[in-house]
């Protein structure tokens, strides 16, 4: 039983480390996305400042901005899903560790 518990703890530790790694990757991606968002904001401000009157140019700029915005939205949605998955994994690990602790306490009381 002790070996099985130790094995379970090793697996849970591995899962926790993987979840932490995912969280770090997602933090990096969020940082990149924030940079892209700031870049898009600057581009938007530049477009506003230029006050272009040519409808074709304005339409092109709007299409370009929309494409970038959709890319950012899709990437953010993916990041949120990954972060949620990582958080759920961490909750699962916490519950298993909690259960393992209770089992260990019960075994100690039997002795």
Automatic annotation (TrEMBL):
One of its GO terms (cellular component) is recycling endosome. GO terms for biological process: positive regulation of cilium assembly; positive regulation of protein localization to cilium; regulation of cytokinesis. The keyword Coiled coil applies. Keywords: Coiled coil. InterPro entries: ENTR1. Residues 9-43 form a coiled coil. Belongs to the ENTR1 family. This is Endosome-associated-trafficking regulator 1. It comes from Halcyon senegalensis. The lineage of its organism: Eukaryota, Metazoa, Chordata, Craniata, Vertebrata.
């Amino acid at each position: 039983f002790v070996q099985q518990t130790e094995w379970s703890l090793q697996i849970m530790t591995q899962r926790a480390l993987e979840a932490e790694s995912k969280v770090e990757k997602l933090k990096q991606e969020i940082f990149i996305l924030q940079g892209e968002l700031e870049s898009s904001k600057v581009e938007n401000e530049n477009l506003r400042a230029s006050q272009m009157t040519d409808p074709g140019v304005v339409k092109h700029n709007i299409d370009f901005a929309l494409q970038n915005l959709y890319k950012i939205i899709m990437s953010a949605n993916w990041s949120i899903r990954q972060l949620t998955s990582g958080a759920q994994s961490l909750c699962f690990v916490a519950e298993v560790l909690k259960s393992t602790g209770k089992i260990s306490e019960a075994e100690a009381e039997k002795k």
